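ugh finaly. both done.
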Amino acid sequence: MKATYVRVSTFEQNISRQLEGKEGEVYWDKVSGMVAFEDRENAARLLADAEAGKIDQVEVHSIDRLGRDAINVLQTIKRFTELGVNVKSQKEGLNTLLENGDQNPVAKLLVSVLSTLAEIDYNNRREAQREGIARAKAEGKYNGRANGTSLSDVDLIDKHSDIVEELNRGETIRRTAKLTERSTNTVQRVKKALDGLKQTD
């Protein structure tokens, strides 16, 4: 089945332009492009239907409808590709998969560029966090316990390095919890501790 995904920001009211000539079921969210794809109500439903094998193509007006964050857009395209779902972007004239199911070389190049940008961003985040942890320890700012745990923020981050890795890669709280087999509450506590480090910069 073909599907159409539409995203409008909270400032946009009219979705008719994005629906012109579209086929199949329409999934649409009224949300900022900075909200991760899988954290949007109907985008999450779209992913679930794709995982269930109900969809073989998702059409969007433009790639930025998937998101404004390069890392999250990359992850979304990769997930659809792994599921054998073609992402068709009207504005860019791009199909991520060829008719035989192979990845489109042009789309593959795009994903490669996004991967490089994501890796640079990931390394920058890790370096900033290492510096933040060292500075926090030196200044004694993180000796207290994090809410809901007997560990200090720094110890919490050290203990859950796998969660930190996924968050650094741009994964959402929900997706990180699934990948690391931890509760969303634990992931949220780790994220809060990481955010606290940024405030020391």
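ok and the 2nd:
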Amino acid sequence: MANDREVLREIWDGKLPVCFQLYQDEIMEIQQPDPFYVMIPRLKAHYISTVKEADVLKHRSQVMSTMQKKDHNQLWLGLQNVQLLRDRECMAADK
């Protein structure tokens, strides 16, 4: 029950619980590895999935499949910086 409260609090704080499991055909070992659980920020998860969908439609996954996690983070941080600049411009225009 305590674990459920922790998960609910994390979801309320804007994080999603995600479980990654390898497909059986991708496992070369006798014993299947344990699933990997992680809490990811909700907005970032939606943004990255949207970018991946756009990549599939436009480039047949050639762009996103070659990107590493650091590239995804750089893309996300770039979007955050653009939003921050827009917010500052709007505040300056209001003054």
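summary for the 2nd one i guess: DSSP finds three helices and two strands in the chain.
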